[in-house]
Amino acid sequence: MRRLLKRYLPDPASLASNRWLAPFGSTLLHPRLWHLNRHSAAGAIAIGLFCGLIPGPFQMLGAALGCMLLRVNLPLALFTTLYTNPFTIVPLYILAFSIGEALMGRGEADFTPPPEWPGGDVLGGLAALADWMVTLGRPLALGLVVLASSLAIGGYLLIRIAWRAHLIHQWRRRRQR
Predict the structure, then answer these.
(1) Contact assessment for residue 147 and residue 92, using Cβ atoms and an 8 Å cutoff
(2) Four-CA torsion 19, 31, 50, 126, nearest 10 degrees
(3) Do residues 100 and 140 lie in contact, with contact meaning Cβ atoms separated by under 8 Å?
(4) Which sign does the torsion angle of CA 23, 47, 61, 83 carry?
(5) Which residues lie closer than 8 Å to 46 by C-beta, 6 or more apart?
(6) pLDDT tens-digit profile of 64-104?
(7) Which of 31, 60, 81, 146 has a 20 to 30 Å separation from 152 between CA atoms?
(8) Contact, 140 vs 97, CB < 8 A?
(9) At 17, phi and psi to the nearest 5?
């Protein structure tokens, strides 16, 4: 399994020669951030799944910081954050809002649809959209934390189980030979 993953992950030596990453070389090129075993892979997947729900362009930054803190595989965590994209982010946020509402005890009647976009008043439209988003705040924030945590725990356990099953399969094949 390690050989399969290493085939697709970038080489640390190629990143060391990158002029944009050179200032962070001592931190980003720490050997434990590039080592691949079942512990680092499972931790990286968990961090990537958790940080994938961070709003905006901070997903990969959050994943990189989490990897540096917990010393798990950096490229795998960065790649895992890509499960959120323009096609999946809206359903995930709707699911997170529903989870938050259910946990807060609010019903479907509390949901207000987004405001109509005024034709020429861009600032007024953005202000109305911001006000609408603030009303979604608490249930959405709670739902995002719960959904991200459950995805991270599920991903961690799934990778640990899959890696273990792969090892057992390899052991049995080796024993048969």
Answers:
(1) yes
(2) -10
(3) yes
(4) positive
(5) 152, 153, 155, 156, 159
(6) 899 989 989 988 998 999 999 888 888 898 899 889 888 98
(7) 31
(8) yes
(9) -85, -5
CB atoms within 10 A of CB 53: 23
* CB-based burial label for 115 (10 Å; 0-12, 13-18, 19+): middle
- Cα–Cα distances in angstroms (integers) from residue 169 to residues 121, 165, 176, in the given order: 63, 6, 11
The owner of tokens 């961090």 is: 47
Q: If you average pLDDT over residues 143-165, what whole number do you get?
A: 95
Q: Which residue has the tokens 């512990």?
A: 39
> Which token pair is 174?
């080796």
Cβ count within 10 A of residue 52 = 25
Q: Cα–Cα distance between 50 and 45 in angstroms, integer?
A: 8
pLDDT digits 0-9 by tens, 6-59: 676 666 666 666 666 655 666 666 767 778 888 999 999 999 999 999 877 789
